Automatic annotation (TrEMBL):
Protein family membership: Belongs to the phosphofructokinase type A (PFKA) family. ATP-dependent PFK group I subfamily. Prokaryotic clade 'B1' sub-subfamily.
Name of the molecule in the record: ATP-dependent 6-phosphofructokinase
Gene Ontology MF term list: 6-phosphofructokinase activity
Functional description taken from the UniProt entry: Catalyzes the phosphorylation of D-fructose 6-phosphate to fructose 1,6-bisphosphate by ATP, the first committing step of glycolysis.
Gene3D superfamilies: 3.40.50.450, Phosphofructokinase domain
Domain Phosphofructokinase: residue ranges: 3-280
Cofactors (names): Mg(2+)
Length: 324
């Protein structure tokens, strides 16, 4: 391997810059040239890249977003788009690609590496934490901290006004952000797609809280949860059925995607970035680097497509006990 390309694709996540830095500097350390492609696969199709040096990634370990920009490329879904991308990579003499992103990014990478002889290595970067083959994805820890900080603030006003707050958090169709931030912020209820408790159980539980002397409550709702049509309708329905509560809604939204990465995400990104290059040098291809029990692992990029890893059901039980 003499030259690699690196890119970020899909939704950005805090810590992606730390991962880019690690990849670029590991390349320099091992005497490999590194091209940074802008806007993910779209940048490869449009030949939009820059040669990266250790100095081109200075002072970015602490920055949110991604200096390489990100996109979800429609062109790359077409055979012509992928052909163009391959031609450009060959022309630039790129021997392998490092893909920083989520499952959409890896699905694209897998198809590409099956069609053309180009090794790919994935680095999991998404706030959703919904990737099989790694316990943690880059950006997840920072997003959790952002959510907990926001919920703490909402709790202040919720308790001053005796209100019931429904707070929607991201996660696509997974409940990792909701479950962990819910426990961390001491939410009374956590609604996640993996465990549909149903409206009746929710109402019962909120009534119980009221009877036990609680005057305000926080319900964390994962965006993929199906208890209501959406969080606004859910709050309206609960408000009608429990008129003693004044129900309000907050959607935290893209705030969860920004901000300076936590130390955990910076360290994770640094470890995964270096290992991605070392695995390539060891001859591994079409893998994703991940972390399991604090050890950096390589899993077949194909295998990670079998759905995300399980949520920690123990946390649901803990949440139930603690919201008494
Ligand atoms: O995958 C990251 C994520 O932030 C999800 O949590 C969310 O569903 C989605 O991306 C939002 O995408 P967009 O930024 O395109 O609205």
């Amino acid at each position: 391997i003499k030259k690699i390309g690196v890119m970020t694709s899909g939704g950005d996540a805090p810590g992606m810059n730390a991962a880019i830095r690690a990849v670029v500097r590991a390349c320099a350390y091992y005497d490999i040239k590194c091209l940074g492609f802008y806007r993910g696969y779209q940048g490869i199709i449009e030949n939009d890249y820059e040669e990266m040096s250790p100095r081109s990634v200075k002072n970015i370990i602490n920055k949110g977003g991604t200096i390489l920009k990100s996109a979800r490329s429609k062109d790359f879904r077409t055979k012509e788009g992928r052909q163009k991308a391959y031609d450009n990579l060959k022309e630039a003499k790129v021997d392998a690609l490092v893909l920083i992103g989520g499952d959409g990014t890896f699905t694209g990478g897998l198809i590409f590496s099956q069609e053309y002889d180009i090794p790919v290595v994935g680095i999991p970067g998404t706030i959703d934490n919904d990737i099989r083959g790694t316990q943690f994805t880059i950006g997840y820890d920072t997003a959790l901290n952002t959510v907990v900080e926001a919920v703490d603030k909402i709790r202040d006003t919720a308790s001053s006004h005796n209100r019931l707050f429904f707070i929607e958090v991201m996660g696509r169709d997974a409940g990792f952000i909701a479950l962990n931030s819910g426990v961390g912020a001491g939410a009374e209820e956590i609604l996640i797609p993996e465990e549909n408790i149903g409206l009746d159980t929710l109402l019962e539980s909120l009534k119980r809280s009221r009877r036990s002397g609680k005057t305000s409550s926080i319900v964390i709702v994962a965006e993929g949860d199906k208890t209501g049509e959406n969080v606004f309708e859910l709050a309206e329905e609960v408000g009608k059925r429990l008129p003693e509560y004044e129900a309000k809604v907050t959607v935290i939204g893209h705030l969860q995607r920004g901000g300076s990465p936590s130390c955990f995400d910076r360290v994770l990104a640094s470890r995964l970035g270096v290992k991605a290059i070392e695995f390539l040098l060891d001859g591994k291809r079409d893998i994703m680097v991940g972390i399991e029990n604090n050890i950096i692992t390589a899993s077949d990029i194909d295998a990670i497509k079998t759905g995300h890893h399980d949520i920690n059901r123990e946390l649901l039980r803990i949440s139930d006990i603690l919201s008494i």
